Amino acid sequence: MNIAQRLRDLGIQLNELQRPLGSYVPCVETGTLLFLSGVLPLRDGKLARTGKVGETVTLQQAQEDARQVAINALSILHAHMGSLERVKRCVKVNGFIASSPGFTQQPAVLNACSDFLVEVFGGDAGRHARSAVGVAVLPLDAPVEIDFIFEITPQ
């Protein structure tokens, strides 16, 4: 089964690519690697919620945001390559979670992104190395920001 079919089966529709919020590009392709800039959980160009996880944002809401970030990342990949079929595997995920003091479940937040990638790409292609880091604040007061490295097949 191809990636587009998996997304349809999951009821996932990729988003229109949002313009960068600063002086950067959404992704850079070099050799067989594609590096994505930090991705926010934007829906229709807006954050569903703002704040810190463990304070004004629940663990479940942060997990929803992490999954939305993964969907947005796939939208960036699709916009860049025209298809997701060149994705060989997800190599690395770096998750940044705006956390209240004492919140220590950053890995649980990021699991929603990781599990979604495995669901879409399958076994080894979806499994990746990762870091889950608690931070004081993120752009636009987003609860979650994630950057990605994907291995792709050459054109």
Descriptive notes:
- With 155 residues, this protein is of the alpha+beta class.
- It has a single domain (36-152), classed as 2-Layer Sandwich (60s Ribosomal Protein L30, Chain: A).
- Helices cover 32% and strands 28% of the residues.
- It contains 4 helices and 7 strands; from the N terminus they run H-E-E-E-E-H-E-H-H-E-E.
- The protein has helices spanning 3-9, 59-81, 106-121, 123-126; strands at 27-30, 33-39, 42-43, 46-47, 87-98, 129-135, 144-152.
- The strands form 2 sheets. A 5-stranded mixed sheet has the order 1-2-7-5-6. Strands 3-4 form a two-stranded antiparallel ribbon.
- Helix 2 crosses helix 3 (106-121).
- It is globular.
Essential attributes:
155 residues, alpha+beta, five-stranded mixed sheet, globular
CATH class annotation: Alpha Beta
DSSP helix fraction: 25-40%
Strand content: 25-35%
Instruction: Examine the coordinates and then state which fold CATH places here, giving the name of the CATH topology.
Output: 60s Ribosomal Protein L30, Chain: A
What is the CATH architecture assignment?
2-Layer Sandwich
In angstroms, what is the radius of gyration?
15 Å
Uncertain spans, ≥5 residues at pLDDT below 50? none
Count of domain modules: 1
Class from helix and strand fractions: alpha+beta
**Pattern of helices and strands:** HEEEEHEHHEE
Shape, please? globular
Number of helices: 4
CATH superfamily: RutC-like
Terminal-residue CA separation:
21 Å
Q: How much is the average pLDDT?
A: 95
Count of individual beta strands = 7
Which strand order do you get reading across the main beta sheet? 1-2-7-5-6
Q: Give a short account of the largest sheet.
A: 5 strands, mixed
